[in-house]
Request: fold
Amino acid sequence: MRALSAVVTLAISSFVVSSPTPLRVLRVTPTDRAAATTVVSVTFDRPVAGSLDATVDPKRIFTIAPAVAGKVEWRDPITLRFTPAAPLSPATEYTVTVSNEFAAMDGSRLEKPYTFAFRVHGTVALTGTPAGPDESGRFLKPDAQFEVVWSNPVDLGDVTKRVYIQFDRACPVLVVRLKAVSQRPIKDDDSWRYREAGGWQRDRGVDALRRVVRFTPITPLPKACSGFLAVPSELDPEGTSPYLRWNLATYGPFVLLSASCGWNWASCPTGPPRIEFSTPVRGAELLRGIHLLPRIAIAVSDTNEESATWTLDASLKPRTGYAVVVDTLILHDVFGQRLVGNPVKAFGTTGYDPAVTYDYGMMLVERNGYRTFPVRHVNVDTVFVTTAPVPDSLEALVLRAPAWNLGDVWAKLAPGATQRSLAVESRRDVNLVSVVRAPVYAARQGGPTLSACCKPLTSASPRVLAAKKRSSGSPACRTVFQSRASTSSYTIPPAGSGLAARQTRKASSDWPVCATPVKAAITWSAGLPAMSPPAWRSIGRSWRSIRGQVICRPGASISARRRARTGCPWPPPCSPSAASIVPANRST
Reply:
């Protein structure tokens, strides 16, 4: 017991006489670059201001240089905080010093004064108009005005020395100096580019500091020239920050550049016609100063709009040549210039791509009616219909599956699939409607209630089943794609099942244009009157159409025709993704 008492007494004595470890700074903010509204904080590793009667005066131990008015306080017993009374000066380095002439609650002190420094961001260029970081100034006048949004108020004389326009070497003038004439805050009625300048992650507390500075060219800008507006990324005192380059171009002569059908599509049977000028034209002036040959009515979406590219509202005919003719005495651009150069541009329309359009999805067919459904087609003379009954054992799986994707169920329906070909009326570039009769399996005793459709397309090479001569002596082809998975039902025509031949004549050579059959998606049986389901939308198109034109020589391989790219886009694979399911009443 005496030994234990001696050990405890020795330990207590040792604790009393030992000196505490030195006070240390754990972290500070900011550490490097800072915003103008930053708050300076210093955090110690132990309590310093633990109570009201033992608080260290923060003003006595905290200093910042250059001197800044603000409030110094203890945020908590270990954190010293300084809040500036006004935004800090941009592009300025500040040094903070914490004195070592104070003690923490345990009596410890800093070994020496603690010092750290940070730099406030300089004034940065945020956006501008008509040239800016996300837009190019086009069709600028010689006396065009420019605006640049800065993050802070600027010295107009300083930015005048730093901002300029540089043109390409082909221009008669390479550099044009600008003069900063005014600056203002951002207003509520300014464009969103100004109001959101700095990005959505910006410090919105300094939004009121942003300024819009207006520049005017000291000498006129040269016409028909391209270049860029050079703006320093940061207005640092050293002038070493990199420059931003915002593209711009001045307007040149008024020229008719092009006329085309559509947006450079491979197929454009009915338009719309598009024309492009070198400078903007007002819509009302355009309607008075141009016409099409052959003469047809034209219109524009907005007669008050000013644009260099116009899409005309006009009804064009397939396989027809047209010419855009400009009346040079009437048409002027927005700068008052008359057209120079060729006032006529020609373009032509194409024929319709072979296409089949039909409704698909969950459909019902009348019990005692015609049991037919419409198929809309153009430039197609044969459709292939493949049908497959759905056994009772698969009804639950089919009904649970979404109409656009039956998945593995298709492989189980393949053994009972049958195919038939139907000749349909075909007139060149005329949209027609034919009907396809639906079988009624449920009408037979013990027959299935449902039927399903679609034949998947595989990558197998095609083989020619038949080739015949037409009256013109040109070859036509009907090609069948062999498929490993032969699930099917109504396929109009069945994807990967055949090509319906159609003759197309060209000036250079007569190649057969084959309408590639692609998937249909219709399931039929006896039941209620038909309902129109949603239409399948082909990939990349906004209208209901299944496209499959390929230009081929009989026996050509798929890969060869893909590389040639002389026809329309290759049809998408016909996976079981466009099937529909219809319950029906059994015949009793």
In short: The first strand starts at residue 25 and ends at 29. Residues 394 and 409 are 8 Å apart (CA to CA). The radius of gyration is 39 Å.
